[in-house]
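Running co-folding for 0RA.
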Amino acid sequence: MVWIRQIKSEKEEGTSLSKQKAYDSSSIQVLEGLEPVRKRPGMYIGSTGIDGLHHMIKEIADNGIDEAIAGFANEVTVTLLADGGVRVSDNGRGIPVEKHPKTGVSTLETILTVLHAGGKFGDGGYKVSSGLHGVGSSVVNALSEKLVAEVHRDGGQFIQEFAKGAPVGSIKKVGPSDWNGTIITFWPDTSIMAKEPFEYQWVVDYLRHQAYLTKGVKTTVTDERTQEVCSFYFEGGIQSYVKHLNIGKDPIDDVFYIDKPVEDCQVEIAVQYTETFNETVKSFANNVINPEGGTHLTGFRTALTRVVNDYARKNGLLKEKEENLSGEDTREGLTAIILVKLPDPQFEGQTKNKLGNPEMRGYVEGVFAEWFGYYLEEHPATAKKIIGKAILAARARKAARAARENIIRKGVLEGASMPGKLADCSNKDPKDSEIYLVEGDSAGGSAKSGRDSKSQAILPLRGKVLNVERARLDKMLANNEIVSLIKALGVGIEDSFDVSGLRYDRIIIMTDADVDGSHISTLLMTFFFRFMRPIVDGGHLYLAKPPLFELVKSGKKENTFIYDEAELETFLDAEIEKRKKEGANIDSTSDRFRQAGFVEQKRYKGLGEMDAEQLFETTMNPEKRVLVQVRVEDAEKADSIFTKLMGSEVEPRKNFITTHAKFVKDLDI
Ligand code: 0RA
């Protein structure tokens, strides 16, 4: 989702490092094996903040999901406890409790106390697992003040407790049981991990995903803090996932789906085309997403391009002298999930999230080409639509190329000359530079005269920026505002896009606090999301927050600016209280701002109502301003939000805006 974080002053960021320093190895008894985890939690869990906390849930719940993938469990439940703990249970085989030959303690204890000990310990290991099965359990244990493991198997109920990774006593049989499964309850160690509450919504999203990826498994989250409960079960697995991704996107037919074994692997693919221009293809290996794709994705793409071209030739949809459709053309409007299961996944790339097993390419290519080929033969109307779309995409691509070449020839996108409307800053180092994208020429003028010209550049944007959700590149490049923007940023576009050319560390969208202003900022955010994702992912995009109110004191005293409605009420309450305490005589019939000691309350509707100095002081001064950082926490949700808000269908947009009215206001989208 589009996630916002308010940064009051830029100095407040980054506190997690200091937390790590609080660790003192002498005061905590930890097994040798887990000490590195407590010393350098970030290396094992990503961060000690909320993301790391959620990662802890994932590490444990993934093991239950692995049991389900292996066919031994069909339920995984996460319970957020009222006391800050989390319970994760699955109805799988239960972690083995007998003595492990190598460690001399139970397999359960081994898995929970030895780093990198995982499913490989039990000889009934996993045919298919994420390759990290159980590994995460010890990391979570190390970072938990307390962890209780409960196993039901072999007719018994077993319990063992741990503190900061170390066992508190040995495993005990506490009674009989006619159930099989594992229940892990942990309480994160707040001397290492942030003292933040788990987010119910994060668990919901994670478990929804897992249910999509493992058909037949039921996942449930229960929040004991709020009594909320949510369960997922998708008979169709990734087929349902594709349908979900395409809500509001005008699908052209039902979902194509296959699930086939190849050698000792499994290939599962779901595909559906929509009337949009976007491509959403996600690939997974053993339920772990591979954001950079890999051999399975390559095999899929190769097969798709080949099958679509073959069909088009065979049926006269592509003439002999016409050139082949490119891979990119065949993927316009495509939503697909590729899920492979393999015994020994290898990952490559900087972040280790690209699947590397070479055999996977051929497996996926072979299976998909064969079955998608049959599908096109059996669904000629759909095949015609898919190929029609690809042909249009090819034409548009050529038109866009011509437009781009034209623009490049004229030197509009590249080159030293900056757009005429840009008031650049004098700093040349991007680190010390920021650019304000300002709604309208008049506010742009005030911003230009009020700014700190050393570090702040101003680019006024006139009128409604083109709705890029529905426009193709050729149209976009015909739009002056978009071209000025691309040029000013210095990053190019599409093939020539290169985030390293970014001329400003911060891009700040500054619009009026009204409906039109929100619309313009939404259009700009959509543009960045669709065409300049690395800028958003890199945390470079911000929204300026102009004040909504000014409270005027009598005489020369400094006025107070207020940035939202709720803040106004709390501020006035506090001021009135303060004045009462000071013995001021407060007239209960007068306005609240008078009771609080002000002579006037101004409401700002637009940036244009402020003069240059006011605009700088309230909205642009780095010492005082409020910035909202635009972050894409969950690209999928953002994608669906942007589709709803900006797409061609009016109904979902209306529904979204009415049901999320407050959210829309808060986010300015
Ligand atoms: C190792 C071996 C076996 C099962 C498991 C681990 C296992 C681990 C977890 C973690 C959470 N839930 C789990 N369920 C099972 C196989 C044991 C056998 O052959 O019975």
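Result summary
The CA atoms of residues 124 and 137 lie 18 Å apart.
The chain has a mean pLDDT of 84.
Job closed.
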